[in-house]
């Protein structure tokens, strides 16, 4: 039983790392140096840069489609892989609070989703 648990943890960690690599690649393809740069841009209040960049990334990783529609399954997948250190109830709270962001455009929804996740992490 212990071996199964350890193997499960290793598989989960590998999948999470693969997803983080996918995020980093999407960030670079969408015009920024990496995921860490998003926080720096947000701290500077550069919504006009962050929104379109996040929308581009979200389309690449399956959170939004090209029409800007946010897919709850994509949000859930993202939260579970990027915040695996949180217990399931904390993850579910973030997902429930953030899987229906508002906004007039895909970029606005992407930005509001980003802000919601940050707010709900604390």
TrEMBL record:
Swiss-Prot/TrEMBL keywords: Signal
Signal peptide residues on this chain, from the entry's feature table: 1-16
Protein's UniProt keywords contain Signal: yes
UniProt-recorded Gene Ontology molecular function terms: odorant binding
SUPFAM superfamilies: Insect pheromone/odorant-binding proteins
Domain of life: Eukaryota
Membrane spanning residue stretches: none
UniProt xrefs under Pfam families: PBP_GOBP
Keyword Protein biosynthesis: no
Protein name: Odorant-binding protein 6
Source organism (scientific name): Pyrrhalta aenescens
């Amino acid at each position: 039983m212990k071996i199964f648990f350890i193997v499960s943890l290793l598989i989960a960690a590998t999948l999470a790392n693969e997803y983080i690599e996918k995020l980093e690649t999407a960030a670079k393809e969408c015009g920024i140096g990496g995921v860490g740069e998003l926080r720096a841009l947000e701290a500077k209040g550069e919504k006009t840069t962050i929104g379109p960049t996040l929308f581009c990334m979200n389309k690449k990783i399956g959170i939004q489609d090209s029409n800007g529609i946010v897919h709850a399954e994509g949000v859930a997948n993202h939260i579970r892989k990027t915040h695996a250190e949180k217990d399931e109830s904390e993850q579910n709270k973030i997902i429930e609070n953030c899987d229906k962001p508002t906004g007039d455009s895909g970029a606005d929804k992407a930005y509001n989703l980003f802000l919601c996740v940050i707010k709900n992490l604390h």
